[in-house]
Each structure stands twice: as structure tokens, then as C-alpha cells.
User: Which sequence fits this backbone?
């Protein structure tokens, strides 16, 4: 059972990394003024706290 759990966890972690990268790319594409209005800066985006 632990082998299947480990495999499942690795798949989930990989998908989370992909999603985090996609969200960060979208946030970086926003106008800097818009990011400022919603309280985001480059450090926040790089910290990947948005997932």
C-alpha cells in the first residue's frame, strides 16, 4: 500500500508544481500597476504561496 501511496503523492506533487508555475506565469504577465493594486510583488510571486 505504501508504494501506491508514494506513487500517488509524487503525481500530486508534480501536478502542484505545474499548477504553481502556470499561476506564477499568469501573475507575472499582469501589468505591474495591477499587481500593485492587488498587493502582489515579484517576491510574493516567487515565493509560490498562491497554491
Assistant:
Amino acid at each position: 500500500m505504501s508504494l501506491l501511496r508514494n506513487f500517488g503523492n509524487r503525481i500530486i506533487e508534480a501536478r502542484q508544481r505545474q499548477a504553481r508555475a502556470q499561476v506564477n506565469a499568469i501573475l507575472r504577465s499582469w501589468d505591474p500597476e495591477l499587481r500593485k493594486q492587488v498587493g502582489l510583488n515579484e517576491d510574493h510571486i516567487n515565493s509560490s504561496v498562491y497554491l
The mean pLDDT is 87. The helical segments are 2-29, 32-37, 42-47. The chain has one domain: 2-47. Residues 34 and 40 are 9 Å apart (CA to CA).
